[in-house]
Design brief:
793 residues; eight-stranded antiparallel sheet; 20% helix; globular; disordered N terminus
Length: 793
C-alpha cells in the first residue's frame, strides 16, 4: 500500500477502484460505507457538524475521535439516502455526498495507464462534497491516502520510533479542492508573518526553533467559504493550502484519516461548533485582564517587593507579578533558594494586601539528584526511550527529564506536589513553561503511546493537569500560562504566548498576524512578551532618528538607540491584546525603566487598559458563552469586503475597536484601511470617517492609530490600581451611526459562581433612529443616566 507516486497515477487508481460498490450500514448515529478495502464513516455531532473517517483498517475507522474532543455524536435531524449512485447524508444545514462511480466518460490514454505497473495509489478513490441545503458548495474532498512507511517516500526511519508492541505506523493524508478565491486562517501559531495561509506551507507541530519564532499546532482552519475543518491527528502534520488547486493535509503517523467539517453562515457559528467539539473557554480571574508584570527574572523576594512598591507608590495600576524560573536550588526540587527567598509566604501575604496576585513558573523537568527524581524514575513517570531510560537533552541540556503528564497517576502526583510545595506559599497561578514538552517526544514514548504518533498533545494534558487541580482543590479560578497549545486547551483556564521572541522591529511586526491566526484557531487568550524576550544586542543603529531619547536609560538598553521607541510602540499594541503582559531579559522592565520620555506614554496606556476593563472583561464573558474570539482579524467581521482578506497589521478588539499598531521605526504616521459597511470614529479626535477607504493617519510616538466603529457601545470604568478594588462604571460611550447592542458583565471576578448564574448582566441597546440608549437586566450604575451615558459627536 504505497502512497500515490503522482497525481496522474492517483487519477488512474481513482478511475479503476471507484468501480467498487459502496455498501452502507446504519449504526444509530452514523453511516458506515465500505468501498473496496476501505471503510468510510459519516458521524454527525450537530446539524452543522459532521465527522468523516477513512481507513483501510475497519476498527480505527469506527473508533472515537482522538484527544481534545469532548462532544458526543448525535444523528438528530440527519437522514441517509441513496441518490442514484451517490450516498447522501443530510440535515437542515449540511448535505454530504459521497459520489459513486458514473459509467461512460473518456478512458485515460494507455500512456497514462502504463506506469501503473510500477506505481500505485495507496487507497481507493473518494470524492465527497459538503454543501448547504440551498446548493452552495462549501468543500470537496477529492482524495485521501494511507500508506505504510517506505523508502520511496523517505519516511521509513519513523519505524524506529515504534516498539514491536505498538500498532503499525501509516502516513495519512487528504486533499481538498481549493478555489481561486478561497482564503485560509487559523492552524495555531506560525510566526512567519502572513495571515492568509493560502500559498504558504504550514508545519503544524510544536517547534521551539521555527525560523520566525516558536510554532505550536492547533489543526483547526476556517475559510471564507462558510466552513471550518478540524483535523483529528496529533502527529506532525503539514498543511499546504492552495497548491495546484488543492489544499492537502499530511500527517506523519496515523491509522486513519479523521476530520470534522463545521458549517456556518458566520464565522461565529463556526466557532460555536468548535466550542461544542472541544470545550468552553472559562473566564479567567479578572486580574488576568489587567496588567501582568514580568521579566527574566526577578531573582529575589526583595526584587519582587521593590517592583510592587514601585507601582503602588506611583499609583500605577497592575495586578499580577510573575516569579520566573531558577528560584529553586535544582530543577524539579520544588523549593526556594533560602538566601534569596527567605519567606515566600510572607511575601505573598504582603503582596495580596497591596492588591497583587502572583504567578510562578513551574517546569515539568526534574534533574538527577533532585529530591523527586528517583521516585519518578522508579514509577516510570518520565517521558522515556524504548528501554525505559528517561529522555534527556545531554550533553548540552542538563535540566533533566520531563514528567509524563499523559499518565493520570503522574499528573495527579505532579499537581499535588505543586500544591503542597508551591501554592501553599500563597502563589495564585502557575506558569506552565516548556509545555512542548521541552524534550521533543518524537522517538520517545509517553503513557498514551509513541511520542512520534502523539507529538502535539502534551500541552493539552499538561495544562489540563493544572486546571483540573485548581478546579478540584482551590476556591478561585485557574490561571495557567502556557507556551504551547492543542485542540481543546482553551478549556483549561490557559493563556498562551508566542515564546522567546527577539527584541526587534521585525519580530514585533510579525506578532500581529501571528496572534490573529492563533485566535482564529479558537483559542482567544493569546499574548506575547511585550518588548521581546531575548537579550538586547549590545549595539543597534536605527534606520531613522529615534523618536525617544535613550540617553538616560543606557544602563538598561545599552546602545540599542531605538529600543525605548520599540518598547513604547509594542506596549501601545499590548494594551489592546486579550492579555497584557510584559516580559524580557532587560535589566529592568517596569514602565519607568525606559526613560523620561517613554514613561508618561507607558503610563497613559497602562491607565487606558484599566479604564477599558469593563469592556474587555465583558468580551471574555461573550467568549465563554459563544466560543468566538474577541481579538479578530478583519475578515471575521467584514466578510463582504474583499479588501480585508489578508490585512495583517490591523484587527478588531471586540465589536468596537479597530487597532492599527505602528511597527515601523521612526514612523509618525501610517496608512489604515477602514472596512466598508461601516463608518468609523478616530478614537483620539472623534473625527468621523466613512469606510471602504485607506487613509493616512497621524501617529506621533504617544498615539496608536485607533478607530471605533459607528454603532458601538463602550462601557468604561473608574480609576483603580488593581482589580481587587471595586470599579464603578464611569461612562457608557456611544458612537452613533447604527443600532448597537452590548452585554455588560460584572461578577466577583475570582470564583466560578458565574457558571451558576451568579453575576450582574446588563443588556445595553442603542437605537440610532431615536438616538436613545436603554438598559435592561441588572443595575449597572447608581448615577443618573445623564451623568453616565456619553454620546459621541
Amino acid at each position: 500500500m504505497l502512497r500515490k507516486a503522482s497525481s496522474v497515477i492517483f487519477t488512474i487508481v481513482l478511475v479503476i477502484i471507484a468501480t467498487a460498490s459502496a455498501h452502507a450500514q446504519n449504526n444509530d448515529h452514523r453511516v458506515v460505507l465500505e468501498r473496496g478495502p476501505s471503510t468510510i464513516v459519516f458521524e454527525p455531532y450537530a446539524p452543522n457538524i459532521i465527522r468523516v473517517t477513512f481507513s483501510l483498517l475497519k476498527d480505527p475507522a469506527l473508533a472515537a475521535p482522538g484527544y481534545g474532543f469532548v462532544a458526543s455524536p448525535t444523528a438528530e435531524g440527519w437522514t441517509h439516502e441513496k441518490d442514484g449512485v451517490d450516498e447522501v447524508y443530510k440535515s437542515s444545514q449540511l448535505v454530504v455526498t459521497l459520489k459513486g462511480y458514473r459509467s461512460g466518460g473518456r478512458r485515460p490514454p494507455q500512456s497514462v495507464m502504463d506506469p501503473g505497473r510500477y506505481f500505485s495509489g495507496s487507497t481507493p478513490g473518494a470524492d465527497i462534497t459538503f454543501a448547504t441545503p440551498e446548493g452552495k458548495q462549501l468543500a470537496e474532498l477529492n482524495g485521501w491516502s494511507m500508506s505504510v512507511l517506505n523508502h520511496k517516500d523517505g519516511n521509513s526511519q519513523l519505524n524506529y520510533d515504534r516498539r514491536l508492541t505498538d500498532p503499525e505506523f501509516y502516513q495519512v493524508g487528504a486533499s481538498f479542492a481549493s478555489p481561486d478565491d478561497e482564503h485560509y486562517y487559523g492552524l495555531g501559531q506560525n510566526q512567519e508573518g502572513f495571515l492568509d495561509h493560502r500559498g504558504h506551507v504550514v508545519h503544524c507541530w510544536n517547534d521551539y526553533n521555527a525560523p520566525g519564532g516558536q510554532s505550536t499546532c492547533v489543526p483547526f482552519m476556517v475559510t471564507n467559504y462558510g466552513y471550518g475543518i478540524v483535523w483529528d491527528n496529533p502527529s506532525k502534520t503539514t498543511i499546504a493550502p492552495h497548491f495546484n488547486e488543492r489544499t492537502t493535509w499530511t500527517s506523519e503517523v496515523g491509522d486513519r484519516v479523521s476530520f470534522f467539517i463545521i458549517a456556518g453562515k458566520t464565522y461565529d457559528e463556526i466557532y460555536a461548533g468548535y466550542r461544542l467539539l472541544t470545550g468552553t473557554t472559562p473566564l479567567l480571574p479578572k486580574a488576568a485582564y489587567g496588567y501582568i508584570q514580568c521579566k527574566q527574572r526577578y531573582r529575589s523576594q526583595d526584587e519582587v517587593m521593590a517592583v510592587a512598591k514601585g507601582y503602588r507608590e506611583r499609583h500605577l495600576p497592575a495586578d499580577v507579578i510573575v516569579v520566573d524560573w531558577l528560584y529553586y536550588t535544582k530543577m524539579g526540587q520544588m523549593d526556594f533558594v533560602p538566601d534569596l527567598w527567605p519567606d515566600p509566604k510572607a511575601m505573598n501575604d504582603q503582596l495580596h494586601k497591596m492588591g497583587f496576585q502572583t504567578m510562578i513558573s513551574v517546569w515539568p523537568r526534574f534533574e538527577p539528584g533532585s529530591r523527586y527524581y528517583d521516585f519518578l524514575l522508579q514509577k516510570g513517570w518520565f517521558e522515556h526511550l524504548a528501554d525505559g531510560t528517561p529522555t534527556n537533552g545531554l550533553p548540552y541540556d542538563k535540566a533533566g527529564s520531563d514528567i509524563d503528564t499523559t499518565n493520570p497517576d503522574a499528573a495527579r502526583w505532579y499537581w499535588n506536589t505543586i500544591k503542597e510545595d508551591i501554592l501553599s506559599k500563597g502563589f495564585d497561578s502557575i506558569w506552565a513553561d516548556e509545555t512542548e514538552p521541552d524534550l521533543p517526544p518524537n522517538g520517545s514514548y509517553l503513557h498514551i503511546g509513541p511520542g512520534t504518533q502523539y507529538f502535539n498533545v502534551y500541552p493539552l494534558f499538561h495544562t489540563g493537569t493544572i486546571y483540573d487541580g485548581f478546579r478540584r482543590d482551590t476556591p478561585h479560578r485557574a490561571l495557567v500560562l502556557s507556551r504551547d497549545a492543542w485542540l481543546g486547551a482553551q478549556r483549561n483556564g490557559a493563556i498562551f504566548w508566542s515564546s522567546d521572541i527577539t527584541a526587534t522591529w521585525d519580530a514585533f511586526k510579525r506578532q500581529i498576524p501571528t496572534g490573529l491566526n492563533f485566535a482564529a484557531s479558537g483559542l482567544t487568550y493569546w499574548s506575547n512578551d511585550t518588548g521581546g524576550w531575548q537579550p538586547l544586542p549590545a549595539v543597534h543603529q536605527p534606520a531613522h532618528p529615534p523618536l525617544l531619547d535613550p540617553s538616560d536609560v543606557r544602563d538598561n538598553v545599552g546602545d540599542y538607540d531605538d529600543y525605548p521607541e520599540l518598547y513604547t510602540r509594542w506596549f501601545e499594541y499590548a494594551t489592546f491584546l486579550p492579555i497584557m503582559r510584559t516580559h524580557g531579559s532587560r535589566r529592568y522592565n517596569e514602565v519607568w525603566s525606559y526613560g523620561k520620555q517613554a514613561k508618561p506614554i507607558l503610563e497613559k496606556y497602562l491607565k487606558l487598559r484599566y479604564e477599558l476593563l469593563p469592556y474587555i472583561y465583558s468580551l471574555g464573558y461573550q467568549t465563554y458563552k459563544t466560543g468566538a474570539p474577541f481579538m479578530r482579524a478583519l475578515f471575521m467581521d467584514f466578510p463582504g469586503d474583499p479588501n480585508v482578506s489578508d490585512i495583517r497589521d490591523e484587527y478588531m478588539l471586540g465589536p468596537a475597536f479597530l487597532v492599527a499598531p505602528l511597527t515601523e521605526q521612526g514612523a509618525t504616521s501610517r496608512k489604515v484601511y477602514l472596512p466598508a459597511g461601516a463608518a468609523w470614529y478616530n478614537y483620539w479626535t472623534n473625527e468621523r470617517v466613512k469606510g471602504g477607504e485607506t487613509i493616512n493617519v497621524s501617529a506621533p510616538i504617544d498615539t496608536i492609530p485607533l478607530f471605533v466603529r459607528a454603532g458601538s457601545i463602550i462601557p468604561t470604568g473608574s480609576y483603580i490600581e488593581s482589580t481587587e478594588q471595586p470599579q464603578q462604571i464611569a461612562k457608557v460611550r456611544v458612537y452613533p451611526g447604527a443600532d448597537a447592542d452590548f452585554t455588560l458583565f460584572q461578577d466577583d471576578g475570582n470564583t466560578y459562581a458565574y457558571e451558576k448564574g451568579d453575576a450582574k448582566i446588563t443588556h445595553l441597546h442603542w437605537n440610532d433612529t431615536t438616538h436613545h440608549l436603554t438598559h435592561a437586566g441588572a443595575q449597572a450604575w447608581n448615577e443618573p443616566d445623564s451623568q453616565v451615558i456619553d454620546v459621541q459627536h
